[in-house]
Fold this sequence. Notes:
Blueprint: E1 2-8, E2 22-27, E3 30-34, H1 41-47, E4 54-58, H2 64-67, H3 70-79, E5 86-90, H4 94-101, E6 112-116, E7 123-127, E8 130-136, E9 144-152, H5 158-163, H6 171-175, E10 180-182, E11 185-187, E12 197-205, H7 212-217, E13 223-227, H8 236-242, H9 247-256, E14 262-265, H10 278-282, E15 288-290, E16 295-299
Parallel strand pairs: 3-4, 4-5, 5-6, 12-13, 13-14, 14-15
Antiparallel strand pairs: 1-2, 1-16, 2-3, 7-8, 8-9, 9-12, 10-11
Amino acid sequence: MLDVCLLGTGGMIPLPERWLTAFLVRYNGRMVLIDCGEGTQIPLRKAEWGFKSIDAILFTHYHADHTAGLPGLLLTLGNSGREEPLTLVGPPGLKNVVEGLTVVSPQLPYELRLIELKEDQCSEILISGLSIKSMPVDHSIPCLSYCIELKRQGKFEVERARNLNIPVTFWGSLQKGDSITFEGRTISPDMVMGKERKGIKVCYCTDTRPTEALEDFVKNADLFVCEGMYGGEEESSKAVQKKHMTFIEAATLASKGEVKELWLTHYSPSLTDPEEFIENTRMVFKNTLAGKDLISKTLKYSD
Length: 303
């Protein structure tokens, strides 16, 4: 299972009652953070999931409301006694951004490992047992959306193992994905495992216009966290101009992508009451939630 927490829901600037958009995913006690705007440390503390087990920080893009909280968080991790490397992931330009931001957080007691993803094609990396896919989106600067998947292997097929005369002592290794050698034969996991089963898929998308490619990218997600910069459709022209989305556009993406649940986030500072627009949004996609700071959920396998 996966634990998820929407740390903040604001766009552009942090407000007294709304922190900037950041999203935390936890699996087997290890965590991945997406975006780290100014003040992200505060909701991180309030969530009480800890700091030291963050293995990676993924950046959608390099506007300040998604990156300015990095130096302080890096120092906090160092002060907590962290020594293991921390992975930072983002579109091209990551090295320059990190070098600039860490001028005020030098001499960290751990290594920063940087992974720059392509800005013009999809990528996939593996971190902390999670498959992390990225896709370029339509914003004013290079920007990525992310899908985090907990993949699930097929069932161990006992009869196939018995037919191959594999001793029970080797079954555990095969279930873990390791090949074994027995009586001069090499047995690989695919020889005794069934088809891969449906895992858990969480998608995070902010700072973009809706696109057909995004519909495919979020297809069948268990949870889709998507920006809703503007609540009312009267602000559609502003959304087009600034390369953002309205609530209805996000809900339309969720509907076309056949996701299970939609959480809206990345609200404009002028959007004081997201709930005012939620009923109209649910007419497009019923299972829509107006995200709030520190909302969390545990996602489990569907079968």
